[in-house]
Each structure stands twice: as C-alpha cells, then as structure tokens.
Design goal:
The complex is a heterodimer of chains A (about 600) and B (about 220).
Chain A lengths: L17 H9 L3 E3 L5 E3 L4 H11 L4 E10 L4 E9 L7 E8 L4 E3 L8 H12 L2 E3 L46 H4 L21 H8 L21 E6 L11 E7 L2 E8 L7 H7 L5 H6 L6 H16 L5 H30 L4 H21 L8 E2 L2 E2 L5 H27 L2 H7 L7 H6 L5 H5 L6 H4 L20 H25 L19 E9 L2 E9 L5 E7 L1 H5 L3 H5 L4 H11 L3 H5 L1
Parallel strand pairs in A: 2-5, 6-7
Antiparallel strand pairs in A: 1-2, 3-4, 4-5, 8-9, 9-10, 11-12, 13-14, 14-15
Helix pairs in contact in A: 8-9, 9-10, 9-16, 9-19, 10-11, 11-16, 16-19
Chain B lengths: L1 H5 L18 H14 L11 H10 L22 E5 L7 H10 L5 E5 H6 L21 E3 L6 H16 L21 E2 L3 E2 L4 H22 L1
Helix pairs in contact in B: 2-6, 3-6
The chains are: A alpha+beta (about 600), B mainly alpha (about 220).
Chain lengths: ~600, ~220
C-alpha cells in the first residue's frame, strides 16, 4: 500500500545492520520508516516476523502498540523486538488504511503478542487477522467506539490538549457534569435503543470458556446434552486473593484447571487517552499511579523516554538520586510481593506485616525527598524535583547497611526453608524458558525461568553501567524460584544502593532550567527500564507540540499475565492464587 | 414510649440530682447500641486501586486500625459493616460495587476514600471512569487525598464513629417497617447505563435525534 506523502520532510530511518539484512531479504516489501525502523508490507509480515525471530535472533517481542496517524489516513502497528543477549531494539511497523484497519496477527510467532493485540483492537479498533481470541480486553464487549482513535472523543471532552482554556488563568471552574449534554460521564450512540439493555459479555465469555462446549464438528453444544464434569468457576473481580480488581474465569475438570482466562479492565483508568491530552510534564504524576507500589521507577521510565526525545541527560547527582530511588523501590516492591505471596499461601498477614514494616521506613525517605509517601512524582525531565540532605543520605545508609539486610535475612531465614512453603511452591506453576520468552514475560518471572535478561544489563540506562551487581537468575521457573529471585534481587539492590550512596557527588540536580511546558522535538522514542515487576516501556510519539501525540505504556504486569493460562494448566484452584501471587501484578498497571 | 419520654420533663429532687441520670429509653438504648457498634465496624476486604495500598498500610502495624476495632476485614460483603471504596471507580467495576453494596446487611456504611472515589479525581476526564461513587451508592464519609495517608483514613473512621454516635435506634431506616430498597445495578451497554436514569436517557436521546434530524434537513 502507499502511504500518503507528508507535508513536512521527516527523516527516514537509515537501513543498516539487521534492518539492511531485512531489506535485502524482502526487497520492496520493506521500506524505511520515519525516524526509526522499517515498515513491512502486510502480506509478508508473518514471514518477516519469523525471519526476525529465527534468523536475526530477536526472540523477545517487547512491545506491540498502534498509533493512529489520522492526517495521513492510516494506522501504524509498531513492534519492538529485542535480542536476549542484549542490545537495542529492532523496530518494525505495519500499516493499514483507517477504513480497512486489519493487520496480520503475530500471535503464532510471538504468543506474547496476544493481549497486546487485543488491547490494540479494543482501544484502537485494529483487527488482527488470525488472532485466536480477538475480544475486547480492557473495555467490555459492546462499548461504543475505540477510544484511542484520534477522532473519538470522551464524554467530558473539552479541548484537544491541555492546559484547557476554561481552567486557567481565570481560575473559574465549571463542573464537567453541568457542561456536557448527558450530565454525566456517558455518551450513547444515536442508533441505540435504550429499551434493549442487556449485558451479554459474561455469556460470551462463558461460551468461550467451554461451559457451552464446542463439539468436534465445531458446533456449540448446550451443556444439557453434553455429559461433562467441566465446571466454569469465576474468581473476582472482588476476591481477596486477586490483588485488586482482577478476575479469572477458570474451567475445571474436577478440581484441575483446564483453562484459565484472565478478565481485566476493572481498573482501566484511561492513562493513554488522558496522557495524550496532557502536556509532557503533566503525565509524570499519572505514571505514579500505574504501578502504585513503585511510583519512583515509573517516573524514571517516563523521564528516560522523554529525555531520549529531548536528547538531554540529567546531571550526575540527579542520576545517582534516580538510581537510589529506583533501587529502594525495588526493595519496597519485593518486600510487598513476598509478604502478599505468603498471604496467598494462607499465612494470613503475619509475614506481610513484617514485610510492610521495612517498607514504611523506605517510604519515610521517599516522603522526605519527594513530599509524598506513595505517589512521589519525583523525577523531572533532565533531573529530579528536589535535592536530599546529608542527613537523608545518612539515614538511607543506616537502612541499607544495617536494617534492610537484617530484615531480608529474617524473611529468608523464616520463609525460604519453610516446609509448607516448599511443599506449596516447588514445582507449581512452572514456566519453561522458551515459553517465558515466547510469552514476552519480563522481570522476575522471566529470570526465574532461567533467562538472565535484565534491562539494566541488556541495554543499560541511566548510570547502571557503573555499578557492580549480578543479574539474579534461577532455573526452575516455578513459584518457589520466583520467590527466591525476589530475595536475590533485593540483595543485588542493596549492593547497588551501597555503591550509589557512597559515590553520590554533590552538585546540580536539574539540567538547565525547570520547565513547565516542554517542547519536545518531533520523533518517536521507546524508553524502557527494569521495573521491579519487569520491563516497563513508554512509547512516545511526538509531533513537536507540547503534548505527546501517542503515549503508550508497555506494562510488565499486563504482559506477564499472558502466560498465566500456561502456568496454571493442570494445577488446582488453590494453586492459581499462589501462581498469580508469584507473578506479582498490580492492577493499576495491568489495566492502566 | 411517649410516656417514657415524658420522664424527661419530671423534676428531679435536689438531693438526688447528683445520683440520678435521667434519659429516655431511646437515648439510653441508642447510646449503648451505638457505643458497642461503632467500636467494631468491620470493613469489607475490598480494594480498588492505589488507595487500597494505603488502606492495607492503615491495617498494618504502624498505623494499626485495630486500635479502633476495625481490623477484621471481611472478604464477604455479608459479614461487613463498612465498605471503604478505596480507589478509582470504573464503569466496568461499578455494577459489581453496587451489587456488593446491596449484599451487605444493614446497618451499613460507606467511606469514599480518596479523590477518585469521591469525584473521579485525576482520572475524572477518562472515558471509563465514574465521577464519584456517590452517583450510585450513598456515602457517609469522604476522605480527601490522592491517596489519603493512613492517618486520614483513620480520621475518616473517627468521623464515621461520630455519625454512628448520633444515630437514634428509633429513626434509623433499618428498624423501620418494610424492606429497604436495593439499588438498581448499573448495566454495561454502549456506555454505562444507570437504570434509574433510563427515562432521562430516553428523553435526551430523542432530543439528540431530533436535533440531528433538523440539522441534516437544513444542511440538505
């Protein structure tokens, strides 16, 4: 297909290295894209994807997302694939006219594309031909429209971009409910008949889950006529073990799990749509609320993505502060995760209480540095918001050198060799390494399966290349190893923290002046960091205005859930709770 | 009951005034009843978003909600007295929240924790976000903050105590005749549908259609 010519001259990506190999292999079907990567024609996309995975060795599909280029009249699906040995991404894109909106599905090449393609269908309305289960994922079946399309407007739509003229500078305020036609945050299509309201999404789901089993002829067989012991059990969205508003629909054969389907979107807060209305800096506090246990490292990921576009680096002291905050966050998260894994095992709240105790001390440090315990909003583009005092450093050292090692050792001593924990965790929820890579899992889940992939080492960001630490790796890929790896990682974080706290220099904390409205040059950037839960990526497309044109979040918890079905098969219901706990999800990030 | 209440106006002999405590049955019973009840408000173990983390912290050792008798978080709504709506209420979730609220036995209370549950908060403009849980269920205490600190939640709980203290056994709705009405569960259609608002939605839809029709006629 032909892309309409752009008015502005946009730099095309240079085809070198693997992109050149790709071009050589597929000829005219591969064209250089704007800014980075190549555009692959849809008819060879599958073949090219296999070539990229098998021949070029980019086995890990990190991110898949879609961008709506409404001016140019097409959707673009952007893929970022990585080599497990480390290094930069291979970016390739597929395009489809807006009225066609169909792209071949890559689930057969990378099963990890499953949820991400469903998300792109849900929010952008791009059909993925050949996807085995192309349903809405964050919204519900029947929702009117695809919200991330540029011509779709939310009910409270005010203006295309912030700052909205109604709010500032005159300062008066009109309630959004009073302003809009429906007097509420809703909108209904003209052709909708309010007398026929019924919610069928659950039935559709249960049909898919085999309550109405599909006979071998392909027909749906009613449960009455089929003598089966299968049972569909619904867990969540209000369930104490689901770590939030997460729902799993489980098909059971007796007590054994045959199939599990995660249902999410109960906390879909529209980060991406709001993020595209916001100015760049306004998104920073929103990133806090993604993975709300690790606000500091979310900030870091977003700051790094935007700094890539801006082409700036923060001063030394700010880099150190960032690393210190990010590693403290990792300890916070892993303490929390282990505490709640034990909760899921039935050790109700006692271990969690001990884990939270240390977390509070770290949150005190965050509060002093950033002003808030949980939603830190601490990083800025080219620096951090506030400096810390010498006393802060001293207290952080006290924690790092004395208190935290004791706490981790205590957890380790009481839990690691605990008979019950071993019995419940070892050999449960095994994810073999090849599947862990295929499902695009990240973070502790990937590393517990024997793949030593850590973005801090694979593609070092900030100043991680200066520190001496090991990438923790375990080889069994079960719940127990996912628990152990978190203990290992806390020790490594302590190592990094010791070095960082000892080496931190004096000096500036912000490159240049603090700016409220940042002009980001036009371009595309994918910034990723190793968050405690896995690889957190931000894909940002800038058109040169003060607001991002596209703001996509590659959420590790969300993509790690793709493998949940695989891990749970053949286990009992009680194990599902533990397996889910071992993935360590946070719903703010899953649903965004 | 009314005769008993008249006791209030009877003069108390001066030699007894320090020894006698005059009250009504209603006030006396309400006092004992509320005193007992307010100190064992069991919240539902129900977390929605970021605020739920602070709710857990409030229950943990440092802030220790057990000091106020509310440490017993019940996973089932049928055993809970208090629903802490801790986080962003989305359209996809609100049918479940209303259902849970309906399942709670009376007396039941609701704390709206944080900016999102109170009015949509930073996510108000989102297309999947409900602008405050009070559009669907009655809220007793609003706790501001994003997220509120655990102390703020405890303060909210104390405010709830004050509210419970002032309730009269005679006046509370759950001792009146008849059953209390369940709140109609919202439906997910093309957008969130509040069944109570259906007549209004119909009228507005008709208005919109008429407007659309006239504008297309005038343009053609």
């Amino acid at each position: 297909m032909t892309a309409p010519t752009k008015a502005k001259a946009v730099p095309r990506a240079e085809l070198k290295g693997d992109l050149a190999v790709l071009k050589e292999k597929f000829g005219d079907a591969v064209q250089p894209a704007e800014y980075e990567g190549v555009v692959i024609a849809n008819d060879v996309l599958l073949e090219a994807a296999r070539f990229i995975r098998d021949e070029l060795g980019y086995r890990y599909l990190s991110s898949l997302t879609a961008v709506d280029y409404i001016q140019e009249g097409y959707f673009e699906v952007v893929y970022h694939a990585y080599r497990l040995e480390g290094g930069g991404p291979l970016v390739f894109k597929a395009r489809t006219p807006r009225d066609v909106a169909t792209v071949p599905s890559l689930v057969s090449v990378w099963p990890g594309a499953d949820f991400q393609e469903r998300e792109a269908w849900d929010l952008m309305g791009i059909r993925f031909a050949g996807h085995p289960n192309l349903k809405r994922i964050l919204l519900w079946e029947g929702f009117h429209g695809h919200p991330l399309r540029k011509d779709w407007k939310e009910p409270y739509y005010e203006e295309e971009h912030k700052p909205f003229s109604s709010r500032w500078p005159s300062g008066h305020h009109i309630r959004a409910e009073d302003r809009v036609f429906w007097h509420d945050n809703v909108q209904y299509p003209l052709d909708w008949d309010p007398d026929q309201v019924e919610d069928t999404s659950d039935e559709l789901l249960y049909i898919g889950m085999g309550q109405f089993a599909r006979a071998e002829t392909g027909e749906l067989v009613e449960p009455k006529s089929l003598r089966t012991e299968r049972l569909v059990v619904n867990m969540g969205p209000q369930h104490p073990s689901t770590h939030g508003v997460f729902r799993m629909v489980v098909t059971l054969d007796g007590e054994t799990i045959v199939r599990l389907e995660p249902v999410m979107g109960y906390l879909h807060r529209n980060h991406e749509k709001i993020g595209e209305r916001n100015m760049y800096l306004q998104n920073m506090p929103y990133t806090d609320r993604l993975d709300y246990i690790c606000s500091m490292s979310n900030n870091l990921g977003y700051a790094i993505a935007v700094e890539k576009l801006l082409g700036i680096r923060p001063p030394e002291r700010a880099e150190y502060l960032r690393v210190i905050m990010a590693e403290f966050t990792r300890i916070v998260n892993h303490l929390w995760a282990i505490g709640f894994l034990l909760n899921d095992l039935g050790a109700f709240f006692t271990p969690a209480l001990y884990a939270i105790e240390e977390r509070e001390l770290i949150l005190d440090l965050f509060e002093e540095a950033a002003g808030s315990r949980m939603m830190c909003n601490y990083m800025r583009f080219g620096g951090v918001a506030h400096d810390v005092s010498d006393d802060w450093i001293a207290r952080a050292k006290e924690l790092v050198y004395n208190r935290l090692p004791r706490a981790i050792e205590e957890l380790d001593r009481y839990l690691t060799h605990n008979e019950l924990i071993k019995a419940r965790c070892q050999g449960v929820g095994v994810l073999p390494p090849d599947l862990a890579v295929a499902y695009s899992t990240a973070g502790p889940v990937l590393r517990a399966s024997g793949i030593p992939y850590d973005v801090r080492r694979a593609e070092p960001y900030s100043i991680y290349d200066r520190f001496d630490f090991d990438v923790a790796v375990r080889y069994n890929g079960d719940v127990y190893d996912r628990y152990l790896i978190r203990i290992d990682e806390m020790w490594q974080s302590l190592r990094i923290l010791r070095q960082a706290l000892d080496q931190i220099p004096k000096g500036e904390i912000q490159a240049g002046k603090k700016q409220y409205m940042i002009r980001v040059p036009a371009g595309q950037a994918y910034g990723r960091v190793e968050n405690p839960k896995g690889e957190l990526g931000f894909y940002i497309v800038s058109d040169g205005s003060p607001n991002p044109y596209r703001y996509h979040i590659r959420a590790p918890s969300f993509i790690n859930l793709t493998a949940l079905n695989e891990m749970c098969k053949g286990h009992k219901v009680a194990d599902v709770v533990v397996i889910l706990g071992s993935i360590d999800i946070v719903l703010g990030e899953v649903d965004r | 009951m009314d005769e008993l209440r008249d006791l209030n106006t009877m003069p108390v002999p001066s030699e007894l005034s320090n020894n006698v405590f005059v009250t009504t049955i209603d006030r006396f019973v309400s006092y004992i009843y509320n005193w007992g009840r307010k100190r064992s408000v069991w919240p539902m173990m129900f977390g929605l978003a970021c605020c739920a983390i602070e709710m857990i912290c409030a229950a943990a050792s440092r802030f220790d909600i057990a000091r106020f008798g509310s440490e017993l978080m019940r996973p089932s709504p049928r055993q809970a007295d208090l629903m802490i709506v801790s986080g962003t209420v989305t359209k996809k979730m609100v049918p479940q929240i209303v259902r849970l609220y309906n399942q709670m036995p009376e007396p039941k209370y609701v704390i709206s924790m944080g900016a999102c549950a109170t009015g949509g908060g930073p996510f108000k403009e989102g297309y999947n976000v409900v602008s405050g849980i009070d559009k669907f269920i009655p809220v007793d205490v609003y706790v501001p903050g994003c997220p509120p600190r655990p102390e703020a939640l405890l303060q909210g709980l104390l405010k709830l105590y004050e509210k419970i203290e002032r309730q009269s056994v005679r006046a509370v709705p759950w001792y009146q005749r008849g059953e209390s009405e369940a709140i109609p569960v919202p439906i997910l259609g093309p957008d969130l549908i509040d069944p109570r608002r259906l007549p209004e939605i119909r009228a507005r839809l008709a208005e919109l259609r008429a407007r659309q029709g006239s504008s297309s006629e005038s343009s053609s």
